[in-house]
Amino acid sequence: MVNELFQDIIRKRRSVRKFEAGHSVSKKALKRIIDCGRWAPSGANVQCWDFLVIDEPEMRDAVTDVFQRQAQRLVDHAKGFPAVKKTYLANTVAIVIVIGDPRWKVCFPQPTSQGWGKEYLENNEAIFLCSLGAAIQNIQLGVTAEGLTSAWLSGGGEDITNKELSELLGYPEWMRAYGTIPIGYPAASQNRRYRRPLEQTIHWNGYQPTKYRRHEQVDFYESIVRPFAMYRDEESMETWVDRAKKLGKWDSAFTSAETNPGGKLQPRADFSAPRVVGKATKRRNQD
């Protein structure tokens, strides 16, 4: 039976980007948080991570400067993404950067038969990234258990940003910052962010095609709904006061147990780039 207290911690975890200034946290508390990451599962038990804990104000400010430049590159070169400025990092009590060490992928299953290279090398990358993701999630839950709050910033792993971080913090450039976790005291309480209905995500004893999310639904989320689903303090879209306006014909697909009542699946499509332009992403085509 799952411990109810642990479920409460999971539900209380938030991605917070507004912190109160003027606080501090003990190294003992930070060690407890990092120890949660240390206990995450990893492929072949290689523990392919290192945790850089930035708690000195001068170094925190230098890391913040790196992410300010990263945020500006998003504005300049990834137009349409609902990015936020990284000035809030200056109010954190610590910043944890999770570094991935790719050498340990050699310990995962390796192809020994001709023609199987792609099969196993791609799977090794998945094992590597999933291992790092587990550590990052454990750290975030550890933060919540300490009565603090955090966010999971995907920025840091891009080539330019990672190069700047490696030069500043001293780790080899061929390692990579896969997760950045600012830690602090929230400036305001936050409700739960959007979550898909539980029954929509569960498939009993096999994949249920009526719960498949169609290509067009992905397009709609990316081009219209994304900024609201990312930042509104509402767990269910059913509570949105402008629900009809925002969801339109896709209301049922986002709020009910079935996203695809007809049960028809679709062939693979190219989603390597956004496919449509909506109100939320129209800036990406601007100069």
Question: How would you portray this structure in words?
Answer:
Helix content is 39%, strand content 8%. It is α+β, with helices and mostly antiparallel strands. It folds into two domains: 4-184, NADH Oxidase (3-Layer(aba) Sandwich), CATH 3.40.109; 198-285, no CATH class. The chain has a four-stranded antiparallel beta sheet. It is globular, with a radius of gyration of 21 Å.
Main pleated sheet? 4 strands, antiparallel
Helix content: 25-40%
Principal-axes shape call: globular
Taking strands numbered 1, 2, ... along the chain, how are they ordered across the largest sheet? 1-2-4-3
CATH topology of the largest domain: NADH Oxidase
| Helix/strand class | alpha+beta
Distance between the termini: 55 Å
Quick recap:
The chain has 287 residues and is an alpha+beta fold. Helix content is 39%, strand content 8%. It has helices at 4-12, 27-38, 57-77, 117-145, 159-169, 198-201, 215-231, 243-247, 251-255; strands at 49-54, 94-100, 149-150, 176-184.
Write a concise keyword list for the protein shown above.
8% strand; NADH Oxidase; four-stranded antiparallel sheet; globular; alpha+beta
What's the structural blueprint in terms of helices and strands?
Elements: H1 4-12, H2 27-38, E1 49-54, H3 57-77, E2 94-100, H4 117-145, E3 149-150, H5 159-169, E4 176-184, H6 198-201, H7 215-231, H8 243-247, H9 251-255
